[in-house]
Amino acid sequence: MHRRMPGPHGSLFSRPRPSKRAHSFRPAMNVGKSGYRVFSANSTAACTELANRITERLGVELGKSVVYQESNRETRVDVKESVRGQDIFIIQTIPRDVNTAIMELLVMAYALKTSCAKNIIGVIPYFPYSKQCKMRKRGSIVCKLLASMLAKAGLTHIITMDLHQKEIQGFFSFPVDNLRASPFLIQYIQEEIPDYRNAIIVAKSPSAAKRAQSYAERLRLGLAVMHGEAQCSESDMADGRHSPPFVRNTTGHPGLELPLMMAKEKPPITVVGDVGGRIAIIVDDIIDDVEDFVAAAEILKERGAYKIYIMATHGLLSAEAPRLIEESAIDEVVVTNTVPHEVQKLQCPKIKTVDVSMILAEAIRRIHNGESMAYLFRNITVDD
Q1: Residue 260: what pLDDT?
Q2: Are the beta carbons of 276 and 256 closer than 8 angstroms?
Q3: Of 1, 56, 64, 113, which alpha carbon lies 20 to 30 A from 107's?
Q4: DSSP secondary structure string, 203-265?
């Protein structure tokens, strides 16, 4: 029987060593092991901090691109490396200049689309215009408009965090992964708030009760709900039910005599739940104009709470928010780094930051590798 002899490298199964020429081509530093790139669409250095944290965790370099405003305020994007056939992740944090950030994202996405990128995934931790997700009097659902613009620009997927309303995901024609910041905020409560077992979770309005209930059940704490003038006035805005205005037509057909709805009148502020001698922790998804939070903190102080914390995912902290927080009865405001707020922290030492770059980096890795996202939603229910 003819016997096969081993090759020159010793074993029957050994392979010849690759020649030096095979190593002459090296991929760009920003290309991951499976071939993806991460870009930042921000034109300001303060907004790229989150992108740098994410790429550091992923072990890749930030994509080479230039985003700037021309003298006439037009947005220009120049991508400085090839993206053909690659999965591209665009990290876009939203600063105070929201509209400029949106244009930067749209222009970069379209530039990558025309450069033959395989998939374009937007990493938008705070989704702008998310509060404008309901029809108002003679208004429009701006959030749905923005979703259509992003799809038209070339985005094929979005990673975001704690949408103002979960139903916003239905506005998109492509997949949306709505991550949660609550595990990081709950961990902060357990590790950074002394004697948190003596705390009570507070919803500053009935509409925030579901979120507060989730925190209370996970921490095994009590729940209190505030109702009255301190609640967010967003739900009381004109929503079209009184449009057109009630005017009796005396010249044409009088029409049907429909019963006139009574005007809303807010009741006096009430707190359902005992907060006396407890640490009050108010939880919400966005903290922007802080007048409602300041008013809620004063009421809780009057009811006997000896420390007041505010936990929110997105710290927009617009206008005079830092000064109002500093002068208020609030002891600490804890937000994540989905929105840059370093300037506000310098103005108000009560503002603390929780880093969520870990979960965003893991989401990027899993989406590119085609792995299940269920791991990132462990023990998270539909109502959370």
Answers
A1: 80
A2: no
A3: 56
A4: ESSGGGHHHHHHHHHHHT-EEEEEESTTS-GGGGS--STT-S-----SSS-----PPPPPPP-
pLDDT tens, 311-353?
Answer: 999 999 988 999 999 999 999 999 999 999 999 999 999 999 9
pLDDT at 383: 65
Contacts of 163 (CB under 8 A, 6+ apart): 127, 130, 169, 178
* CA separation for the pair 364, 91 (Å, rounded): 10
Q: CA torsion angle for 194, 195, 196, 201 (degrees, to 10)?
A: -120
Mean pLDDT in the chain? Answer: 86
pLDDT 10s digits, 217-259: 999 999 999 988 644 444 444 454 444 555 555 455 666 787 8
Classify strands 270-272 and 279-287 as parallel, antiparallel or unpaired.
unpaired
CA atoms within 13 A on the CB side of 8: 2
Q: Is the pLDDT of residue 70 over 90?
A: yes
Bond preceding residue 244 cis, omega within 30 of 0: yes
Q: Are strands 75-79 and 65-69 parallel, antiparallel or unpaired?
A: antiparallel
For the chain, strand residue ranges (E) read 36-40, 65-69, 75-79, 87-91, 119-123, 157-161, 176-179, 199-203, 222-227, 270-272, 279-287, 307-315, 332-336, 351-354
- Between CA 301 and CA 360 the distance in angstroms is 37
CA separation for the pair 111, 212 (Å, rounded): 42
Higher-confidence position of 41 and 10? 41
Q: Other CB atoms closer than 10 Å to residue 251's CB: what's the count?
A: 5
Give me the mean pLDDT over the 203-213 stretch: 91
Does residue 70 come out as left (phi exceeding 0), alpha (psi in the -120 to 50 range) or beta? beta
Residue 238 one-letter amino acid: A
Write the single-letter amino acid at 181. Answer: A
Of 145, 120, 119, nearest to 130 (Cα)?
A: 145
Cβ atoms of residues 309 and 236 within 8 Å: no
Place of tokens 């990081």: 184
Measure the CA–CA gap between 173 and 147, rounded to whole angstroms. 8
Q: Rg (Cα) of the chain, in Å, rounded? A: 26
